[in-house]
């Protein structure tokens, strides 16, 4: 279930979903009208609401992905950051996540 704030995550936790997407964490260019940016502090705070996996999305780059995981996300979802060179960029992400 995609969530964008505390209220949505609290509602989503009451469902049978296996994981929750949360974001956008940072400014994103993949949507014409994105939801408000939540930032790393929100990831830290929202982590307390569920033990199920949190997948952070929105503006995730090779440079910031590690900080997103350190803030409490279990994984990241990326779009724009890998479009121009999927294999190379994926390898870079994997290296950062080790």
What's this, in brief?
With 98 residues, this protein is an alpha/beta fold. The longest helix has 12 residues.
Poorly predicted runs? none
**CATH fold node name:** TIM Barrel
**Overall average pLDDT:** 94
Number of helices: 5
Widest sheet: strand ordering = 1-2-3-4
Sheet having the most strands: 4 strands, parallel
Count of distinct strands: 4
What is the molecular shape? globular
Total of domains? 1
CATH class: Alpha Beta
Which superfamily, in CATH terms, is the homologous superfamily? Aldolase class I
Rg, alpha carbons: 13 Å
| CATH architectural group | Alpha-Beta Barrel
Helix content range: 25-40%
Topology as H/E string? EHEHEHEHH
Our measurement of the CA-to-CA distance between the termini, rounded to an integer number of angstroms, reads 26 Å
- Amount of beta strand: 5-15%
- Category by helix and strand content: alpha/beta
Overview of this protein structure:
The protein is α/β, with parallel strands linked by helices and 98 residues long. It has a single domain, classed as Aldolase class I (TIM Barrel). It contains 5 helices and 4 strands; from the N terminus they run E-H-E-H-E-H-E-H-H. It has helices spanning 6-13, 39-46, 65-71, 80-83, 86-97; strands spanning 2-3, 20-22, 54-57, 75-77. The longest helix has 12 residues, at 86-97.
């Amino acid at each position: 279930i995609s969530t964008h704030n505390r209220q949505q995550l609290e509602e989503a936790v009451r469902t049978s979903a296996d994981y929750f997407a949360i974001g956008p964490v940072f400014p994103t260019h993949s949507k014409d009208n994105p939801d408000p940016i939540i930032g790393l502090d929100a990831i830290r705070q929202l982590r307390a609401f569920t033990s199920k996996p949190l997948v952070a999305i929105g503006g995730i780059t090779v440079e910031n992905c590690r900080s997103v995981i350190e803030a409490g996300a279990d994984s990241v979802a990326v779009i724009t950051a890998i479009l121009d060179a999927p294999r190379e960029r994926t390898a870079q992400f994997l290296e950062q996540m080790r």
